Amino acid sequence: xxxxxxxxxxxxxxxxxxxxxxxxxxxxxxxxxxxxxxxxxxxxxxxxxxxxxxxxxxxxxxxxxxxxxxxxxxxxxxxxxxxxxxxxxxxxxxxxxxxxxxxxxxxxxxxxxxxxxxxxxxxxxxxxxxxxxxxxxxxxxxxxxxxxxxxxxxxxxxxxxxxxxxxxxxxxxxxxxxxxxxxxxxxxxxxxxxxxxxxxxxxxxxxxxxxxxxxxxxxxx
Length: 221
Known about the structure:
The structure is a single chain. 53% of the residues lie in helices and 19% in strands. The protein has ten helices and eight strands. Strand 5 (103-108), helix 7 (111-124) and strand 6 (129-135) form a beta-alpha-beta unit. Helix 1 (16-29) runs parallel beside helix 6 and helix 8 crosses helix 9. The longest helix has 22 residues, at 199-220. It starts with a strand and ends with a helix.
C-alpha cells in the first residue's frame, strides 16, 4: 500500500491483490464498509468541494478508474497500469464473490444505470448471484423503505452507480442501518468491464486528461 496525495486528498494506492485481501476482511467484519472507484471526472468534481473531498478521504478503500491518475500520483510500477487499464479488481472481486456464493445488490439512480451495471457484472462473472436491482429517485422519501428492503435481501455486496454527491448524501443518513458487507461506489461514466472506446469517447477522454493534468499541476505548485 502506498499513500498518495491527489488534488488535496490523502488517498491510498493498492495492488489488486492487496485490495482483495482487504475485501475479505471487510466481509467478515459485519459493518458496512465503503469502497469508492475514482476516475478523473470524480476527482475533478471533488477538487472544488471540500465536503466531497472529506467524504472520499474517509472511504475505507479507494480504487482507480483511469491510468492517468497513476501518473498524477507518480506511481510508476507497470503492473499497476495493467491492473487499472484492464479493471482487474472487478474481474477478481466478482469471481471471489461468486465462488463464495455471496450475493450482489445493484443500486442506482436510474433504471438505465441499474440495468447497464447489472449487465456488466454478469458479463464479467456469469453465474454470479444478483439479489436484485433498486433505483433511488428521491433520497428523503425512499430512505426508510429502501433500507428495509435492502436489509430483507441482506446482500454481501451493494454495487452502486450514481452521482457521488448523491451517494454521499444517501450514506450519511443510512450507512449505520444497512445490513451488508461492502458498498462499492462507481461513477456514472465508469464501465466495470473493459471495452473499446468510440471516437467521441476518446475525444472526451483527451479533453478530460488535459483538464485533470492542469488541475494536478496547479496543486503541485
